[in-house]
Amino acid sequence: MPIANAHDCVSQAPSAAGLPLRRDLLVGCGEWGLRNLPMDDHFRIAQRFGFEYLEFGIGGGQAGRLPESPSAQDVLAFRALGQRYKIQTPFCCIENDFTLSDPQAHERMLGKVLSQIESAADCGATHVRLFAGFTPVGRMTEPQWLRMIEAFERCDELCQRLAMVIAIETHGAIVANSDGSLTHQPTVTTDGQGLRRLLAELPGRIGINYDPGNLKAAGADGDLHLGLLNGQINYCHMKDWRRVGQGLAACAIGDDDLDYVPLLGRLAFNGVYVIEYEPLEDTEHGIGRSLDYLKRIVPSIRFR
After folding, report:
1. Which of 55, 158, 216, 220 is the most exposed place for a label (fewest CB within 10 A)?
2. Can you tell me whether residue 68 is helix, strand or coil?
3. Where in the chain are the domains?
4. Please, what sign has the CA dihedral across residues 191, 116, 54, 244?
């Protein structure tokens, strides 16, 4: 399937409830667990499992990502990998924080993100994953909020010109504990009141990268905000978090107690569900466990 058709496939607005328990599930491979590996290995591992959609990243200082400012040669080499392995890469992850308290630091952050969105488009991306930011929701000031919304408006204007869409990931503010575990604090993308205001003030084209594992980790209860977000989801990460020592550690879906059966039964999103296995020590095994779990709970999974 050429990239143009891939855009049609992955950017469809949600259309029907009760997706996977009545039909198959289209899955792709996330990039965060591959972040320490050379880019060629990302494609090799994805091909080994049969994936035809692969997420990629720009910046953030990770060895397995394109550099902060990809050159024309970087872009050509990346696209050549997709052609060589016959894998599409419509999903790009950019590292950002639009809730910085320093206005000058915020402007520098926005300039970097705008430049990287253009690089993502050059790489063939149709969706760009952004964060709102990592300031705990209780410490957000009104100026920070207004700068955040304006930043998304400017990014959305650029994405419209580039035939791309934004997906804001549901993600808490992470604090590292002394034992190596992580604690998630609520942000505007995991707190119900924050999400309601965010949806009310964002440009309508901007969607949500729904990550139920992150929402669980940040303390969201009930339906993990699915009732609130279901109509805006244009990207989906699948993982879980388990209790370890003082906090949490990321794990595969099926490794802990997050039940994807009711979630997938209600999710209206009709695109690629990206398996995001985060641990670095057993990346391929974790991807495999995630696929095995999906095979147990849905009629069938597919890769294109």
Report:
1. 158
2. coil
3. 3-302
4. negative
Identify the residue whose tokens are 């604690």. Answer: 183
Q: Tens digits of per-residue pLDDT, 234-267?
A: 999 999 999 999 999 999 999 999 999 999 999 9
**Strands annotated E in 147-280:** 165-169, 173-176, 182-185, 207-210, 233-238, 240-244, 247-251, 273-275
At 62-75, the pLDDT tens digits run 999 999 999 999 99
Half-sphere exposure of 243 (CA within 13 A, CB side): 3
Burial degree of 301 (CB within 10 A; 0-12, 13-18, 19+): middle
Query: Given a cut of 90, is residue 9 above it in pLDDT?
Result: no
Residue type, 204: G
Buried b (16+ CB within 10 A) or exposed e, 288-298: bbbbebbeebb
What is the pLDDT, as a whole number, of residue 222?
85
Question: Which residue bears the tokens 């977000």?
Answer: 229
Give the whole-angstrom CA distance, residue 155 versus residue 106.
Answer: 13
CA 253/CA 239 separation, integer angstroms: 5
**Which residue, 303, 215, 229, is CA-closest to 269?**
229
> Scanning the structure block, which residue is given the tokens 């063939």?
124
Q: Enter the DSSP assignment of 13.
A: P
* Furthest C-alpha separation in the chain: 51
Give the global pTM: 0.93
As beta bridge partners, residue 127 has: 91, 165
Around Cβ 201, how many Cβ atoms within 10 Å? Answer: 13
240-246: which pairs have CB atoms within 8 A and are 24 or more residues apart?
240/213, 240/216, 241/184, 241/213, 241/214, 241/216, 241/217, 244/179, 244/180, 244/181, 245/177, 245/179, 245/180, 245/181, 246/177, 246/178, 246/179, 246/181, 246/183
